[in-house]
Amino acid sequence: MSEWKLGAIESRFADLIWESEPIPSPELVKLAERELKWKKSTTYTVLKRLCQRGIFQNRNGIVTSLLSRREFYALQSEQFVEETFSGSLPAFLAAFSTRKKLSEEEIAELQALIDQNRR
To answer: What is the C-alpha to C-alpha distance for residues 34 and 32, in angstroms, rounded to an integer?
Structure first.
């Protein structure tokens, strides 16, 4: 399994952590029980897995992120483009825009990103 890919449930759990951090692990257990209907053992198993992948840490019973949500999803996006389009962002955008036409607003945002990266 790729370290930058999360399943749907792992993503929901990661979002809980990002929204609540820093959070004591017992509080995270209660939050996961309430929001995901998880048992304590499930919470700690998934947390351990995400810590081993370098996304979060559990130090002295306090859970924090090692990567922000934005950093994580940037890495995930880069990996997707690399694996699927041999690292070619233009190939990704070409494939994306064949089925979904970009709005004028989206085009302007992309152009602003291009201009920003030219500097």
So the answer is: 5
Residue 10 DSSP SS3? helix
CA max distance for the chain: 50
Query: Quick check: helix, strand or coil at residue 64?
Result: strand
Query: Global pTM?
Result: 0.76
Tokens 């999360």 — which residue?
6
- The string of DSSP codes covering 76-108 is HHHHHHHHHHTT-HHHHHHHHHHHSPPPHHHHH
Can you point out the beta strands (E) in the chain? 23-24, 56-59, 62-65
Kindly report the number of other CB atoms within 10 A of residue 14's CB atom. Answer: 20
Reference 65, options 16, 32, 12; nearest CA is: 16
Handedness of CA 112, 116, 118, 119 (dihedral sign): positive
Q: What is the pLDDT of residues 5-16, one digit of tens each?
A: 788 899 999 999
